[in-house]
Amino acid sequence: MSLINQMLKDLEKRRSRDLETSDTLSQNITWETRPNQKTFNWLTFSIIFTLAALLGVIAYLLWERTTQPEQPVVTKKSNVTPLKKQTVKKVAVSQEVEAKVKKQVKAEIISDENYANAIDVDEVVEEDVIAAEDIDNSPPIKLQKTRHPLNSKQLAEIAYKKGYQLLQQGQMRKGKEYLREALSLYIPHIKAREMLAGIYIKSGHFISAAELLSEGVKIAPEYPLFAKLYARVLLEQNNPGLAIQILNRGSVSAVMNVEPDYYALLAATYQRVNDHQKATELYLKLVKIRPTTGVWWLGLGISLEKLGKNKEALEAYQRAQDTGNLKAGLIKFTNNKVSALSEIGFPAR
């Protein structure tokens, strides 16, 4: 241990001497630092300063141009009026006309030096040419009215309307004349034929009505009203057989659900010729379509009774009573039928 301690002391002494030597050297040495001096470059500085000045001038000019309001162009009044820029629709003109207009306008503009310097000459010339193109120099079109004569159908319609107007005013004779004139001009005029036939039927001129309607069912077989009116005229003339033929022929165009009255007339006409089977078939279909029509139940009862079906006939008569819409004479007839059938063994309800 003493040896180690001795070694440590020696090392400590050496270290102390080294430190003293180092301090002495540091005191004797003088450290001198000289700055790195460079020569000032005046050429580079001049170039940079000039560029900066130019950039500043350019920036000022740009700013002044964008912020300064646009000055109106002062023009001298001349024979040529500068046109405002606007969108116009160009029309086709010949190259010769366009060149002539450009040459004339440009010459007038250039003659005024101040005006030519203030504006774009070519631009004004182009605008004037466009304006010239807009001017339609073609001669005015003369419209000529050509009157086309009315055809027979149109003339017939005019006559019909005149006749209808006169009938509404109570002028029956003149009204019929215009209706006949309408048919003479245009035979297929349905409304004129229908109205004139109705007037004849109402006034009892069944022969004239029959002539109109017999021609009508041939001209317009698809119009069931002509067949219906003609059948009524034939029944008035006591010709039920022909009436059935006319009605059956017209039934092709008559739908039962749409025109049940048409088939009711056919059923009543079958009764006139004692064909109660066909009449019964039609009446059974009709009372299903419109069960509140008392006269159809009455017609069904009559045909059933004729066929010997008294019980069914009594029920049909009773249904006719239930409707409550029979006329006074038919109510009495129906009541008598109900009483008569009840007495022979078919009691009423």
List the keywords.
single chain; 349 residues; mainly alpha; Serine Threonine Protein Phosphatase 5, Tetratricopeptide repeat; elongated
How would you summarize the topology of this molecule?
Elements: H1 2-28, H2 42-67, H3 95-111, H4 113-118, H5 121-134, H6 152-168, H7 172-185, H8 190-202, H9 206-219, H10 224-236, H11 240-250, H12 260-272, H13 276-289, H14 294-306, H15 310-323, H16 328-343
Helix pairs in contact: 3-5, 6-7, 7-8, 8-9, 8-10, 9-10, 10-11, 11-12, 12-13, 13-14, 14-15, 15-16
Describe what this molecule looks like in 3D.
The protein is mainly alpha-helical and 349 residues long. 69% of the residues lie in helices and 0% in strands. It has 16 helices and no strands. The protein is elongated and about 170 Å long.
